[in-house]
Amino acid sequence: MVRIGQSSLYIITGGISHKLDHIHSNTYLYNIKSNKIYKLPNLKQARYTHYSVYIDNWVYVLGGREFGEDDQAILNKC
To answer: Where does the pLDDT of residue 27 fall: very low under 50, low under 70, confident under 90, or very high at 90 and above?
Structure first.
C-alpha cells in the first residue's frame, strides 16, 4: 500500500489469500476520508511481499514473490 502524496488516497496492490493458495494482481484506490474503494487495472505480474512507492505522480511496484521454491520465487522485475 502506498499513500498518494499528502492526500487521503492510497493505492493497494497485489497480495496473497488468507489460505496462502492464490497470489493477487488486483489494484485498488482507497479514499480514507470517504471510506470508498475503486478498482484499478491489475498489475502485470501477481505478487506479494513487494514494495510500492509514489514518485512524481507515478506508482512503482518493485520486487516481491510469486509461488515457487525460495530462490526461484523472488521476482527480479517491476
So the answer is: very high
